[in-house]
Amino acid sequence: MANGTRMESSFVISVAVCLYLVFVASCDANLANTPGPIGGSPYSAPVHQLKTPGETFQPVPYALSSIYLTDLAKREEQVHERVVEYLRSLEDRLELVKTYLMDYDDSQSNIKDEIDMNATESLINSSEVETLRALKVTASPIRSYRMIRRFAQDLRAIDKHIRDDAESLFLDQMAEIQGMHNWPSEDDTYDVMDGILRIHFFYKLNLTEFVQGRVNGTETGVKLSTRQCWNIAQFAIRWQFYTLAMEWLEVTKWKLRQESEEERWPGLSEEIVIAAERRTREHHDKHFDDQIEKRSPFIFVNQVGKGPGLPKTMREHLMENYLGREFGEDTDFSFINYVALCNGYNFQNQEEKNKLSCWLERDRHPYFILNPLKMELLHEEPYLVQIHDFIGDHWIQVLKRVASPMLERAPPRNHAKATPRTATYAWLQDEDIEEISLINKIESFTGLKVATERASERLQIASYTFGGHVGTHVDSLGSQAHLDEKGDRIFTLLIYLNDVERGGLTAFPVLGTTVKPMKGSAVLWYDSLKNGEVDGRMLHGACPLILGQKWIATKWTHLNENMFKWPCALNPEV
Ligand SMILES: *[C@@H]1O[C@H](CO)[C@@H](O)[C@H](O)[C@H]1NC(C)=O
Ligand SMILES: *[C@@H]1O[C@H](CO)[C@@H](O)[C@H](O)[C@H]1NC(C)=O
Ligand SMILES: *[C@@H]1O[C@H](CO)[C@@H](O)[C@H](O)[C@H]1NC(C)=O
Ligand SMILES: *[C@@H]1O[C@H](CO)[C@@H](O)[C@H](O)[C@H]1NC(C)=O
């Protein structure tokens, strides 16, 4: 028994190590290469029509960036207006067509009955029928008048409306609203569903509530339809996120039962969902060994078979058994601790917590005598400090304004080696933000040379939307440092540019603590040890954002220009 337990433990430890990497890396890597699982994009046709020859659109990472998502939402308001106008024009035309047909039918009805009866009885042939009908019309002043009027008015109106070409007008207007950006594509729907599944997984969202518009307790006022739940379930199945897929199928079934007959989408029935559940179980079991080898957290701890009920999920198992361990340098538990930290856990013991404090810092530079820094120590050794009100609203606005047009997805969609991340980034040179003295302030604060491209990297601005995250990593370049003419990174200074509604903590799995994003505050830590080696304790990640937006600015300063200043000038305790 004891033996069995130990074996299970070591299995789980190895599972824990790479879980996270598999999650997004495989997702990122595979999605781009595979045709869409969920049918054609409703937008694909217009996009093709709108694209004028020779014009290249920039693909925009809509689902990863709050700026593009906001922009898209604004454009959709204009698009919606045009669609409403287009509907009105369709309805007008429909009305004209109906008017014509009703008048025709009404003025012909009793002729037809009589002639048709004689035709059925083969008393007359078809060309006689035509002639007889025509004679009936011309014999009647009323019928003749109505016929002439139909040509003069009804048909002419239809003709005119068609020549007005509401379709071309509509397409032109759409192209104008679209501008140089492509509309969202199938890939963007993957990004969005990927984001939803990530917050579902990380925060163990209650799906019954989620699909009714409550996101971890916050009422958003908008629901998912049964069909949309089904689409997400299909997506989860496709990417072998089995535990999540089962939950999405379950909630799809639940939604089906809530619906009245009229609401129901005819393409889906409870039998179809149950069949999908059965297939998902079969796939789970068939790929179980594979999935364990790949260290997927999206499986159940045992095979599930055909029977009722399901065993524990791997996530539950890891959370129950591998939390709050002594950390040391060993990062084996970092993944599950990262998930726990994102959920509000803290693993610092009382002794560590007792050392934490807040103070006003005046000594670093004469500038701070009158404007002391509001420091909060979050971890003593290694040093992790949050500086409140490090920058104000004006600087924040400048940073966002300058960065907004430059935001890009990084790394590219199927870059499997990079740290899994879902956000957009911009890199600002010192000259881009000359109107604010941010670089000076960082130099005064750290006592290091930060200005110029030799001393530091460009200021990185990152923008996240829901589901946006960065997997755990260290910033130090380690053995790669010699490849960088600047030398290794000395410190990371990360500035939060807004208050975050829910989620989005910065988590340090080895330190066992998190930093809450607070507008204008900065966090500082050192990336390398004094002897130049990587400080593995500074492993950190950005927790997935649940609601709202998140903007951060990060400055990495390097060693070579600071050789004789570091480490003495920085942190006297180390
Ligand atoms: C239909 O046939 C009957 C009998 O042959 C005839 O009296 C009547 O006029 C015919 N009707 C028409 C519309 O031709
Ligand atoms: C229909 O009947 C008319 C007169 O009985 C005849 O002249 C004509 O050829 C017939 N047409 C056909 C298509 O049978
Ligand atoms: C999810 O929320 C629903 C409705 O509030 C509740 O009835 C259900 O028990 C919750 N499920 C879980 C697993 O907590
Ligand atoms: C989600 O909601 C629960 C209950 O209100 C709360 O305890 C938890 O901190 C929330 N999670 C996050 C990441 O905000």
Give the CATH H-level superfamily of the largest domain: q2cbj1_9rhob like domain
Helicity range: 40-55%
Number of helices: 18
Architecture (CATH level 2) name of the largest domain: Sandwich
The main pleated sheet reads as: 9 strands, antiparallel
Largest beta sheet: strand ordering: 3-4-5-15-11-18-9-8-6
Small-molecule binders: 2-acetamido-2-deoxy-beta-D-glucopyranose
Whole-number mean pLDDT: 83
What is the global morphology? elongated
CATH class of the largest domain: Mainly Beta
The number of domains: 3
Strand content: 5-15%
Q: Total number of β-strand segments?
A: 18
Overview features:
single chain, 574 residues, alpha+beta, 3 domains, 46% helix, 13% strand, disordered C terminus
Would you write up a description of this structure?
- This protein is of the alpha+beta class and 574 residues long.
- The protein folds into three domains: 155 residues, Serine Threonine Protein Phosphatase 5, Tetratricopeptide repeat, CATH 1.25.40.10; 101 residues; 217 residues, Jelly Rolls, CATH 2.60.120.
- Helix 3 runs antiparallel to helix 6.
- The longest helix has 55 residues.
- The strands form four sheets. It has a nine-stranded antiparallel β-sheet with strand order 3-4-5-15-11-18-9-8-6, covered by helices on one side. Strands 7-10-16-13-14 form a five-stranded antiparallel β-sheet, with helices on one face.
- The two termini are 46 Å apart.
- It has 18 helices and 18 strands.
- One of its GO terms (molecular function) is procollagen-proline 4-dioxygenase activity.
- Its cofactor is L-ascorbate.
- Its EC number is 1.14.11.2.
- Catalyzes the post-translational formation of 4-hydroxyproline in -Xaa-Pro-Gly- sequences in collagens and other proteins.
